[in-house]
């Protein structure tokens, strides 16, 4: 038989598929009675807006027809929400799809893509799949105020003559750290205008730090800036796959050429529009997360663990040499966290902030397995 590995393009040959963590479906079946506590994927435990769920039910009558290939209604709602134009918007089957496509469109063999060490794993995949070289800027130190966070000065330094694209996450997954508005404005002013800067703001809705600002208002002045957002996290629609990018209309128009015509499905379009309109529900999720994030961080610190500051719905926690053993013993007690070996952080676990009851079960299980 032919070796399909050798048929694949060079960028794809060395690639390892995205690691989604545990096989959750299998684990759910195994722990039906114990009720699995799933704190591994940064999903929103408060669930989607009731209005979004109703919009899905209403949209069911139309699922025999193709969805709106332009996503016009959702784009108009997003444009109004952010004070931008529909032409600034690109819709994706989750923002993951768009993050991959930016590299496909703008970077290739002989060119490079810059990201930060401990940045979101998809950026490396995107660069490699496009056949471009990945240049990783060193992260801030483990002991910095933002442990392992993006070092924008180092990112700037990593940009070279062949750099086409820069990926940043603010706040970042898996570190939970963020960079401030002034640092970023300074950074952006120094990036050559032919280098596209993608700022992934998947967790922006959760942020309450006063030094943080979304990069969205900078899009009007910086045609090389792209900001991505998602309905998967604070809006609690991860199962439907809806994300979007905001950028200069001409950049969006280039991206539109490779977008699969019906990439966002009808239920996703309807639900996202309704979720966006339900500000009250979003606010409740964000407030619940903020309160539980603080309480969980406090409880972990009280147990002598090192917890990174977080503006997201998860915490990066250092467990030392024990991390792997603790993680697997937690799974056997029906509590799922995300191992960080893939990020070169084998001593850490990433913990999604759950509801009060979920966090309590996590802490109880943790006390058992660490005893
Ligand atoms: C969860 C996440 C995404 C969102 O992915 P979707 O494809 O929109 O569900 C994007 N970036 C980061 C950093 C994330 O953690």
What features would you describe in this structure?
- This protein is α/β, with parallel strands linked by helices.
- The chain has helices spanning 4-7, 10-13, 24-30, 50-59, 72-82, 95-106, 122-129, 152-158, 181-190, 249-256, 266-277, 279-302, 323-331, 356-370; strands at residues 37-38, 89-92, 112-116, 133-137, 163-169, 196-200, 225-230, 243-246, 306-307, 314-318, 335-336, 338-339, 348-352.
- It folds into two domains: 8-47 and 280-370, Aspartate Aminotransferase, domain 1; 50-278, Type I PLP-dependent aspartate aminotransferase-like (Major domain) (Aspartate Aminotransferase, domain 2), CATH 3.40.640.10.
- The protein has 14 helices and 13 strands.
- A seven-stranded mixed sheet has the order 2-8-7-6-5-3-4, sandwiched between helices.
- A hairpin with a 6-residue loop joins strand 9 and strand 10 (314-318).
- The termini are far apart.
- The model has no long low-confidence stretch (mean pLDDT 96).
- Pyridoxal-5'-phosphate binds at residues 42, 94-96, 120, 169, 173, 200, 202, 230, 232-233, 238, 243.
- Its cofactor is pyridoxal 5'-phosphate.
- The modification N6-(pyridoxal phosphate)lysine is found at residue 233.
- It holds the Pfam family Aminotran_1_2.
Quick description:
This protein is of the alpha/beta class and 371 residues long. Helix content is 38%, strand content 15%.
Structural class of the secondary elements? alpha/beta
N- and C-termini, Cα separation: 53 Å
Residue share in helices?
Answer: 25-40%
What ligands can be seen in this structure?
Answer: pyridoxal-5'-phosphate
- Classify the beta-strand content into a percent band: 5-15%
Number of helices: 14
Would you list the SSEs in sequence order as H and E?
A: HHHEHHEHEHEHEHEEEHHHEEHEEEH
Please state how the strands of the largest beta sheet are arranged side by side. 2-8-7-6-5-3-4
Q: Could you give the count of β-strands? A: 13
InterPro entries: Aminotrans_II_pyridoxalP_BS (IPR001917), Aminotransferase_I/II_large (IPR004839), HisP_aminotrans (IPR005861), HistidinolP_aminotransfase (IPR050106), PyrdxlP-dep_Trfase (IPR015424), PyrdxlP-dep_Trfase_major (IPR015421), PyrdxlP-dep_Trfase_small (IPR015422)
Domain Aminotransferase class I/classII large: 36-366
Pathway: Amino-acid biosynthesis; L-histidine biosynthesis; L-histidine from 5-phospho-alpha-D-ribose 1-diphosphate: step 7/9
Pfam families: Aminotran_1_2
């Amino acid at each position: 038989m032919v070796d399909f590995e050798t048929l694949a393009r060079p960028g794809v040959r060395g690639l390892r598929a995205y690691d989604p963590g545990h096989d959750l479906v299998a684990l759910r079946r195994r722990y039906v009675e114990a009720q699995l506590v799933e704190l591994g994927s940064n999903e929103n435990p408060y669930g989607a807006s009731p209005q979004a769920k109703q919009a899905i039910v209403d949209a069911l009558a139309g699922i025999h027809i193709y969805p709106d290939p332009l996503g016009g209604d959702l784009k108009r709602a997003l444009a109004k929400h952010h004070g931008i134009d529909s032409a600034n918007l690109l819709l994706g089957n989750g923002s993951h799809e768009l993050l991959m496509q930016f590299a496909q469109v703008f970077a290739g063999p002989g060119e490079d893509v810059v990201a930060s060490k401990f940045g979101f794993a998809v950026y490396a995949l995107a660069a490699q799949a496009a056949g471009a070289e990945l240049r990783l800027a060193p992260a801030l130190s483990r002991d910095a105020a933002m442990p392992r966070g993006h070092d924008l000065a180092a990112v700037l330094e990593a940009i070279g003559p062949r750099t086409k694209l820069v990926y940043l996450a603010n706040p970042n997954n898996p570190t939970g750290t963020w960079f401030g508005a002034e640092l970023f404005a300074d950074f952006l002013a120094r990036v050559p205008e032919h280098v596209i800067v993608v700022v992934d703001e998947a967790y922006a809705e959760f942020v309450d730090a006063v030094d943080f600002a979304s990069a969205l208002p900078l899009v009007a002045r910086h045609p090389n800036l792209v900001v991505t957002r998602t309905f998967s996290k604070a809006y609690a629609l991860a199962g439907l796959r809806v994300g979007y990018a905001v950028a200069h209309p001409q950049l969006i128009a280039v991206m539109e050429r490779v977008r699969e015509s019906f990439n966002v499905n009808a239920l996703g379009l309807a639900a996202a529009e309704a979720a966006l309109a339900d500000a009250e529900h979003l606010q409740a999720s964000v407030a619940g997360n903020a309160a539980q994030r603080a309480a969980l961080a406090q409880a972990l610190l009280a147990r002598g663990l090192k917890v990174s500051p977080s503006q997201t719905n998860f915490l990066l926690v250092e467990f030392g040499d024990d991390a792997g053993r603790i993680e697997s013993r937690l799974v056997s007690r029906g509590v799922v966290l995300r191992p960080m070996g893939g990020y070169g952080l084998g001593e850490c676990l990433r913990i999604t902030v759950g509801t009060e009851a979920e966090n309590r079960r996590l802490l109880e299980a943790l006390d058992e397995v660490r005893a």
